[in-house]
Amino acid sequence: MHGVTRREWTKELLRKKREKERQEILDYRELSDEVLELKNKRVANKDSLLKTTQLLNINPEFNTIWNYRREIIKLLAPSLDQTFWDGELAFTMDKLKVRPKVYWIWNHRVWCLEHYPNSPLKIWLKELAIVGKLLEMDARNFHGWHYRRYIVSTVERLSGNCLNSQEFEYTTAKINQNISNFSAWFQRTNIIEHMLARDQIADKESFIDDEFQYIKNAMFTDAEDQSVWTYLIWFIKESALKEHMTSEKYSSMLKELTEIIELINDDDISFSGKDNIWCLKTLLVIEFIQKDILKEDIKSKSREYLDKLIIIDPLRKNRYLYQIRAL
Amino acid sequence: MSEQQLLRDKHIDYIASLDTKKDDLEYWLSEHLRLNGVYWGLTALYLLDSIETFNKEDVIQFVLSCWDHKTGGFAAFPRHDGHLLTTLSGLQILATYNALERLGSEKQEQLEKFILSNQKADGSFQGDSFGEVDTRFVYTALSCLSILHKLTKEVVEPAVSYILRCYNFDGGFGLNPEAESHAAQAFTCIAALAIVGKLDSLTPAQQENIAVWLSERQVPEGGLNGRPSKLPDVCYSWWVLSTLSILQKADWIDFPKLTEFILHCQDPKNGGISDRPDNEVDVFHTVFGLGGLSIMKYPGLRDIDPVYCMPYTVTKYFQRKYSD
């Protein structure tokens, strides 16, 4: 079980646990049997709905019961008012608070929003605020980020407004709260690509300068954090942004980066006596771009970086040896 | 720290004990995972070279009892709903016992229909008719079809293009396009491509980028995590190492350190393996811990096919290529 501390079960503790659970097991099995029987008979009324509520309260991971619940709701839908749907959303939220990583519950919540009477924009806007709260509780919850993208795309569809700049600011806020939030950095890459694809960045040159400055600040804030380095590698190597830079600008940006990274690395050496692993890994990427993409005639230090990495990052020694052979 | 050993007999006892825990509430609350659990237990026993610990006929009967005639797939437990995840577990168990013929041709056809009915226009798969889409289901669907010898160009080509859309710049894969990279998704995407012989739809540079990202999953404790800045967890020993093994880069992980981490997650008293040292064990982490050790050639464990997480002696009969 994920993250549950192992307990020593003495005979006495086990006896007490089983005594306590005996009645719970009987009740649970009886209820479970009853609901599955109702399901088998396709009974759809307020009582069968209530039975699924009772069962899901005990076991929110029981996917078949979520399925049955949806079948019941679909059949009862003509007689269900908005209060019911608000209640259903509240019910899934209660379950998500207990089990924030259970796929079935997220799935049921999406279904509720889609089947809410007329599925108005205002419930999706409310949902966007709710997912913001969920990501405050667990800023890396991957269901939460996935869910946010889905909500945003629906809000955009229903409102006809593009939320890219709002969502871009959202990632800035999340990163500023915690620079190690890779989920936010990752989402930033998605949004920038969208903004470029839709030509929503009027002054690309100043956008690139601002973003470069933002990355540099982050590097100086926490040079140990891999999130920033991974984002930097995206920025210089993978993003469509570089297509909007002249080769002179691209080249001088890489040179400036090399100087900064060497500076950060020297700081680390004087502080801890060791090179910074991510500095060396990023310098390798920069050299690769300079040599293989920009065809610049530079004095390569790749071998030196890899030799150092083998010593300071021995877990990945074989990868570095492979990379040396590939030089 | 003393040298840790694999507690083989204790793990066998632990797996054998799983079906005797009917006095525990947890046993009943986990029915929705039962068929998956049987597959995990059986595969763990295979790795431990003790497959006879389970009664073959009882297990086959249980699998058949999980058939859901309404969907035409397997459910986790009798009277539950069929789903792709549990359908794969059912087929894996039957194939491991060389008992696929027990299904009969009618059920095999229903299975094919059920699986194909869950493919969407963009090549992705939903887990059941309720519409959750995830790269996990692309893998389960292609693995099932490969076991049943029902792979066709019409299914595979859109599925492959969907997988490629889930590839991220950092070298990982997400559960959907634009979803953050996750190590379990690296396995489902790469192993799915391997099943259908389409690894070459990724460039050598992309394959290397994937291996680099996977090698970054090893943390100083020796274990592997699923995403940057997360805690290590034994199950990633399988998701990461099997994927690297498919890419022929398993040695990019430090084997002695990972072995030590997995062995430290054993329950020395009752057997079984947990996600992290001193946590509660379960059969899921037990099989994936053992699977990781097997890829690292830990002595006394049997080999396992990294693509299917099943014995090679079984997977050699599966369909790997489809006709154009």
UniProtKB/TrEMBL annotation, chain A:
Pfam families: PPTA (PF01239)
GO cellular component: Rab-protein geranylgeranyltransferase complex
Protein's GO biological process: prenylation
Presence of keyword Repeat: yes
Keywords of this entry: Prenyltransferase, Repeat, Transferase
Documented EC number(s): 2.5.1.60
Record-level Gene Ontology MF annotations: Rab geranylgeranyltransferase activity
Source species, domain of life: Eukaryota
InterPro entries: Prenyl_trans_a (IPR002088)
Enzyme class: transferase
Record's catalysed reaction(s): geranylgeranyl diphosphate + L-cysteinyl-[protein] = S-geranylgeranyl-L-cysteinyl-[protein] + diphosphate
Functional summary from the UniProt entry: Catalyzes the transfer of a geranyl-geranyl moiety from geranyl-geranyl pyrophosphate to cysteines occuring in specific C-terminal amino acid sequences.
Family: Belongs to the protein prenyltransferase subunit alpha family.
Name listed for the protein in its UniProt record: Geranylgeranyl transferase type-2 subunit alpha
Source organism of this protein record: Kluyveromyces lactis (strain ATCC 8585 / CBS 2359 / DSM 70799 / NBRC 1267 / NRRL Y-1140 / WM37) (Yeast)
TrEMBL record, chain B:
Domain Prenyltransferase alpha-alpha toroid span(s) in chain numbering: 6-310
Cofactors, names only: Zn(2+)
InterPro entries tied to this protein: PGGT1B-like, Prenyltrans, Ptb1, Terpenoid_cyclase/PrenylTrfase
Gene Ontology cellular component annotations, sorted alphabetically: Rab-protein geranylgeranyltransferase complex
EC number: 2.5.1.60
GO molecular function terms attached to this record: metal ion binding; Rab geranylgeranyltransferase activity
The protein's role, per its UniProt record: Catalyzes the transfer of a geranylgeranyl moiety from geranylgeranyl diphosphate to both cysteines of proteins with the C-terminal sequence -XXCC, -XCXC and -CCXX.
Complex formation: Heterodimer of an alpha and a beta subunit.
Name of the protein in question: Geranylgeranyl transferase type-2 subunit beta
Organism, scientific name: Kluyveromyces lactis (strain ATCC 8585 / CBS 2359 / DSM 70799 / NBRC 1267 / NRRL Y-1140 / WM37) (Yeast)
